Amino acid sequence: QGQLVESGGDLVQPGGSLRLSCATSGFTFSDYWMNWVRQAPGKGLEWVSAISSSGSNTYYADSMKGRFTISRDNAKNALYLQIDNLKSEDTAVYYCAKRSGGLMDYWGEGTLVIVSL
Questions:
Q1: 3-class DSSP state for residue 76?
Q2: Which distant-in-sequence residues (6+ apart) come within 8 Å of 103 by Cβ?
């Protein structure tokens, strides 16, 4: 079992920054790759980024490179996503998800980011 709780979503103006957090429990966090996935209003799920279990390797969707930074603190069982220079198209619910065996088997309930004037 696992529990993931996202936080940090907010209403921000274009050009602003946010740091999303994902607190985890119920599994050995440091053993697993983790992901961020987002869903914009009326659209499907979009993979954002992944990070290896140690944090040494990070991956981003092409459209996310440069403004998004994924990180983790294995001592705190926490995952983070820094988003800079926010754009209106970043408006979405952001989910963290645990990866196991090639699947994202546990998801949080998401945190809402709204980018608007």
A1: coil
A2: none
Angle at 99 between CA 96 and CA 105, to 5 degrees: 80
Q: How far apart are the C-alpha atoms of 66 and 10, rounded to whole Å? A: 21
pLDDT tens profile 15-47? 999 999 999 999 999 999 999 999 999 999 999
Residues 6+ apart with CB under 8 A from 51: 33, 34, 35, 57, 58, 59, 70, 71, 72, 79
For 67-84, write each residue's pLDDT tens digit: 999 999 999 999 999 999
The closest of 58, 40, 41 to 49, measured between CA atoms, is 58
